[in-house]
Design a protein that fits this description.
This protein is an alpha/beta fold. It has one domain: Alpha-Beta Barrel (TIM Barrel). An eight-stranded parallel beta barrel has the order 1-2-3-4-5-6-7-9, surrounded by nine helices. α1 links the parallel β1 and β2. α2 packs parallel to α3.
Length: 327
């Protein structure tokens, strides 16, 4: 079986706090370490009432301090929001604290709406080539010491794997051109997945970091002891997606029996598309769906995510998925 990893958005549930969400993230990472997951990534989102991982490098430091072997990383840092030097320093600090355990995934979306992007001082008029230039600049800061006026301390000379994240062909082409591993956001934007994989694998050029193409795909999993329990769990994420599409994001709501059935045909079709890379059900159903997805895509690694209201149910879901690792 290929490696499994976890993407956690540190969900803030209704009635909970950001502190609760971050404590739960660390607890999940600690458990995942024992279950055999390879990585625990967190993502940068801003102005989102239901996500506690906005200060991603700070959250990762907290998770890293509660674990000992699992890799920690960003899936991802939205690089247009930052100066490359700052990210090199932040992740150089993480690598100095947790040597050999840190990944850095980079995306070109703002991870927020336009108003918050302006508040981040992001240049919304940057040309399309700015992101590739920023990626290369950041990579240069991490190279061994060389004569330069500006140096990333810590960061310089540290081995921090860089990943390109994406949900379109742009990221696939960039990852292939730079010879970097590629993570595709199929867990919420599956539309161009197969085309992006073909572009990446066909155009890949070996680099000092990577000799052959390596693809990690996002995948939603809601696993429980029964199909009925899992279907109910998944309604929290369904509600969150509907609210986001309506421009009213909020904290992650509790599950609602019959929620999917109560939706209009258009809303159901939208959810069916956005959740097409998902497994919802009991252990046998989830394991079969994951195997089929791997066979269809040829993924080198899966990044499992589960936006679940109840923390214990979320832990149980990841534990069930991990049974495939044991096999």
């Amino acid at each position: 079986m290929i490696p499994f990893s976890i993407l956690d958005l540190a969900p803030i549930v209704q009635g909970g706090t950001a502190a609760d969400a971050l404590h739960n993230a660390r607890d999940l990472a600690r458990q995942a370490e024992g279950w055999g997951y390879r990585r625990f990534w967190m993502a940068e989102h801003h102005s989102m009432p239901g996500i506690a991982s906005a200060a991603t490098s700070v959250a990762l430091a907290y998770v890293g301090g509660g674990t000992s072997t699992i890799r920690i990383g960003a899936g991802g840092i939205m690089l247009p929001n930052h100066a490359p030097l700052q990210i090199a320093e932040q992740f150089g600090t993480l690598e100095s604290l947790f040597p050999g355990r840190v990944d850095l995934g980079l995306g070109r979306a703002p991870g927020t709406d336009q108003a918050a992007a302006y508040a981040l001082r992001r240049n919304l008029n940057a040309d399309v080539d700015q992101f590739p230039r920023d990626v290369v600049e950041l990579m240069d800061y991490l190279k061994p010491a060389a004569p330069a006026r500006v140096r990333a301390i810590p960061g310089e000379g540290l081995s921090i794997p860089i990943w390109i994240l994406g949900s379109s062909l742009f990221g696939a082409r960039l990852a292939a051109h730079l010879g970097l591993p590629y993570a595709f956001a199929s867990h919420f934007a599956p539309g161009q997945m197969m085309e992006a994989l073909d572009v990446y694998r066909t155009a890949f050029r070996p680099s000092a970091q990577l000799a052959e193409p390596y693809v990690m795909l996002g995948f939603n999993a809601f696993a429980a002891n029964t199909d009925e329990e899992a279907a109910l769990m998944a309604t929290s994420l369904m509600q969150a997606f509907i609210a986001l599409r309506q421009g009213t994001p909020g904290q992650l709501p509790p599950p609602i029996p019959g929620f999917y059935e109560s939706l209009s045909p258009a809303q159901r079709a939208g959810l069916d598309h956005v959740l097409s890379c998902s497994a919802i059900g009991g252990p046998d159903k989830v394991h079969a769906a994951i195997r089929a997805f791997i066979a269809r895509t040829g993924a080198d690694e899966l990044m499992i995510t589960s936006q679940t209201y109840d923390h214990d149910a979320r832990l149980r879901s990841f534990e069930i998925v991990a049974q495939l690792i044991e096999r």
